[in-house]
Design a protein that fits this description.
mainly beta, 7-stranded antiparallel sheet, globular, SH3 type barrels, 1 helix
Length: 93
């Protein structure tokens, strides 16, 4: 994927693009798919993307940071954040 393609996708999803960074709102959940050697690597719960000319930095909800070149980026999944279900503890009547 190219930098321009990624930016078009993020703009079409109405994400807040401020300069070189994109923040994923709390009501969305982002996973990026990266090409590995013989496998696809998933980076789930991305909360911030820093976009430079040569590479992409992904920051997760656990404050992990990953750097990738655009050639390794296969895709992006954006979902609504999962809502916690209200359940009673133990058995319900």
């Amino acid at each position: 994927m190219t930098k321009d393609t990624l930016l078009q996708i993020l703009k079409s999803e109405n994400l807040n693009i401020a300069g070189d960074s994109v923040t994923v709102p709390e009501d969305r959940e982002a996973t990026l798919f990266i090409s590995g050697s013989g496998e696809t690597i998933q980076v789930p719960k991305v909360v911030k993307l820093e976009i430079s000319d040569d590479c992409l930095c992904l920051q997760t909800a656990k404050d992990d940071r990953f750097w990738f070149t655009y050639e390794l980026l296969l895709g992006l999944r954006l979902l609504p954040a999962k809502q916690a279900k209200e359940r009673a503890a133990g058995f319900s009547r």
